[in-house]
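TA notes, week 10

Several of you asked for a full example with nothing omitted. So below is the full record: structure tokens for the whole chain, then the designed sequence directly under it. When grading your own attempts, check the secondary structure regions first.
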């Protein structure tokens, strides 16, 4: 039979050390220096609390301070590998703080608004949004609601227009590095299969591709940009269009690794050898990029760092009681992961 152990209380620790409950509480809540309690006594209490498995009662702390000590997270990408990594970073960051994280998975405007209302109703002190690309009226709702409740906001891959802290991968530099790599291999006809026209990361990657085409003086007519809407069937269809013999590119830059895998699949169906006849690159360094044949040259994005930095910025904003939001963007550096899907441009 499983034995259930009663929760350790401050009074239990006080009794074992023959100290007053007030003294133990002051030490555990880091107020003992103001009361003149010695460091030696504080260390005794902290060591005993750890040995007994004491866990602070967050409900009691919230009632005492009038604060929820909670940060809300809205994400539409928890089922995606990159979105899960961002969540892991956020959870790792919050473990060393007195805050807790309440997570809502959402898809679409109706779920986004409902989840925000629930979080605000539970009096969250900060809001971290991942991959939320709202319609204008939903964007306005988020802005007004968070301002009304004085909630600090941070985001990644969101298209909010109001001021808040943003934490993003450096999509522009990453795409430029991929184009430079292909250019140095002799490629001049490079196509791009993007995601959609809405999400922040897709837009940034496609815009960076076009800047790269201009920077390397490539012919725009020979460097098309196509949109897959992040759907694999559409990505395969677009790849098939690109591989028509009359004007086939020598390389394809894909907005993520799944699109790159779809491109490899189509090349295999058409008996095109990768990388001998076609070079393919992806982004995000997902597991699938290592499982294809050949393995995909891609970009590693520090998703866990982005999740961690977002939470720590929110906590800093909450603790400093900063009331004026600014539109600050922190870019996290990415790195190319060289594998076997690129080679020198084929002779024709």
């Amino acid at each position: 039979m499983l034995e259930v152990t009663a929760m350790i209380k401050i009074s239990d620790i006080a009794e074992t050390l023959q100290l007053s409950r007030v003294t133990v509480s002051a030490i555990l809540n880091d107020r003992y220096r103001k009361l003149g309690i010695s460091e030696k006594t504080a260390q005794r209490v902290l060591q005993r609390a750890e040995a007994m498995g004491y866990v602070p009662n967050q409900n009691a702390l919230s009632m005492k301070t009038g604060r929820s000590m909670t940060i809300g997270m809205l994400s539409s990408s928890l089922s995606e590998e990159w979105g899960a990594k961002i969540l892991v970073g956020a959870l790792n960051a919050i473990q060393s703080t007195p805050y807790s994280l309440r997570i809502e998975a959402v898809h679409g405007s109706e779920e986004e608004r409902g989840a925000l209302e629930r979080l605000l109703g539970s009096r969250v002190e900060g809001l971290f949004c991942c991959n939320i690309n709202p319609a204008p009226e939903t964007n306005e709702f988020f802005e007004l609601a968070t301002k009304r409740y004085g909630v600090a906001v941070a985001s990644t891959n969101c298209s909010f227009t109001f001021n808040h802290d943003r934490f993003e991968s450096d999509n522009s530099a990453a795409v430029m590095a991929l184009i430079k790599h292909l250019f140095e291999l002799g490629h001049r006809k490079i196509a791009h299969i993007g995601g959609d026209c809405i999400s922040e990361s897709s837009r940034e990657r496609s815009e960076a591709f076009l800047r790269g085409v201009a920077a390397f003086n490539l012919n725009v007519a020979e460097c098309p940009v196509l949109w897959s809407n992040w759907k694999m069937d559409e990505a395969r269809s677009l790849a098939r269009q690109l591989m028509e013999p009359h004007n086939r590119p020598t390389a394809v830059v894909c907005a993520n690794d799944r699109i790159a895998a779809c491109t490899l699949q189509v090349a295999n169906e058409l008996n095109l050898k990768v990388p001998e006849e076609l070079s393919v690159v992806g982004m995000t360094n997902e597991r699938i990029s290592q499982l294809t044949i050949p393995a995909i040259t891609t970009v590693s994005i520090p998703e866990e760092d982005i999740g961690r930095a977002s939470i720590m910025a929110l906590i800093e904003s909450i603790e400093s009681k900063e009331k004026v939001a600014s539109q600050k963007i922190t870019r996290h550096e990415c790195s190319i992961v060289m594998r076997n899907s690129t080679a020198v441009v084929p002779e024709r």
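DSSP finds 13 helices and twelve strands in the chain. Use that as a sanity check on your answer.
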